[in-house]
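Example 9 (inverse folding). The structure is encoded as follows.
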């Protein structure tokens, strides 16, 4: 099983959570790159939004998606604070000791601690950062240097990766933080792939434009898997024929089965069942056709076989699904048309 990497995102009332959401979007990009390269074997980033006491926060950006990647917390990200001045930052940190203790524990456990801008105060207040370097905006350096003289201020560096402490001075450096987290979590190869996606590269831009002008970049061809899925989607109600499907995409049945299993985790027949069940759900919701008629419209001549497949993929019988989700009133409740009165 892939080893996921989960990041905790503590938030208080004054937290600039939009910056944390921006980091989450970059971690979603890392998940996308990992999935494209490794398929179902790919490790994933997860993220947990929590309040100042570590309790889950609901209705945060992509919160459900972040919790779907199971695993122990491996990092903590501290957003900058919306404050008018440095004394206000000090007051907020002083009144949120739970976060300070959490960060100190994270350092003790060897977790990565990530900070953006004034979020560095929380990391430093835990007393575990002596001798380390931090990236800060210039306007925070004076106050931070007075509060924590044992921490080195990284002049002119928007991002610093100093062991367990990853710090960014400005939001523009969050891309470098996402790449560094990917390197910490999943290694150099995926980090390099993400860097190519997130970080500007003028040299590559010039090379790409030159190759395009020289007609060296061909159109991307449809993959065997995508071609097969499109073929099935156009023939949902037709009998399943693996050989015909393989011939249509110019692959052997064995190769086709391998593509489906590696990338999706199931067979072409399973995918066809999913497509048929998706159609059946629509018909059950918006029509009054009988279950055998719905089964036939979805490629099942045997209504009993249709019921078994539907229960396996949807979790309930077709009749129960219609009872719960139907958008049409039962026929006995239809209103008489005005012309029939």
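The amino acid assigned to each position is listed next.
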């Amino acid at each position: 099983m892939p080893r996921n990497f989960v990041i905790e995102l503590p938030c208080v009332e004054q937290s600039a959570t939009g910056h944390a959401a921006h980091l989450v979007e970059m971690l979603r990009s890392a998940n996308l790159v990992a999935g494209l390269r490794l398929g179902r074997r790919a490790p994933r980033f997860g993220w947990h939004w929590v309040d100042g006491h570590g309790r889950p926060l609901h209705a945060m950006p992509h919160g459900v998606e972040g919790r779907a990647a199971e695993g122990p917390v491996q990092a903590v990200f501290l957003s900058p604070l919306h404050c008018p001045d440095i004394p206000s930052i000090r007051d907020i940190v002083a009144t949120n000791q739970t976060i300070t203790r959490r960060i100190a524990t994270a350092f003790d456990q060897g977790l990565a601690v990530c900070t953006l801008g004034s979020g560095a105060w929380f990391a430093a207040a835990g007393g575990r950062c002596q001798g380390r370097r931090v990236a800060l905006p210039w306007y925070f350096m004076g106050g931070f240097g007075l509060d924590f003289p044992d921490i080195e201020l990284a002049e002119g560096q928007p991002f610093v990766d100093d062991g367990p402490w990853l710090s960014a001075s400005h939001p523009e450096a969050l891309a470098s933080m996402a790449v560094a987290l990917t390197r910490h979590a999943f290694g150099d190869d995926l980090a390099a792939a993400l860097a190519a996606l997130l970080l500007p590269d003028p040299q590559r831009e010039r090379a790409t434009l030159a190759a395009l002008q020289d007609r060296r970049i061909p159109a991307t061809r449809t993959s065997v898997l995508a071609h097969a899925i499109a073929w099935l989607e156009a023939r949902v109600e037709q009998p399943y024929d693996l050989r015909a499907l393989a011939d249509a995409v110019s692959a052997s049945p064995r190769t086709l089965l391998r593509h489906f299993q590696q990338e999706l985790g199931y067979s072409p027949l399973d995918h066809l069942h999913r497509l048929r069940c998706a159609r059946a759900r629509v018909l059950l919701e918006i029509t009054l056709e009988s279950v055998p008629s719905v089964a036939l419209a979805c490629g099942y001549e045997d209504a009993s076989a249709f019921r078994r497949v539907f229960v396996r993929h949807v979790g309930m019988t077709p009749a129960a699904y219609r009872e719960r989700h139907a958008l049409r009133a039962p026929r006995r409740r239809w209103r008489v048309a005005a012309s029939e009165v």
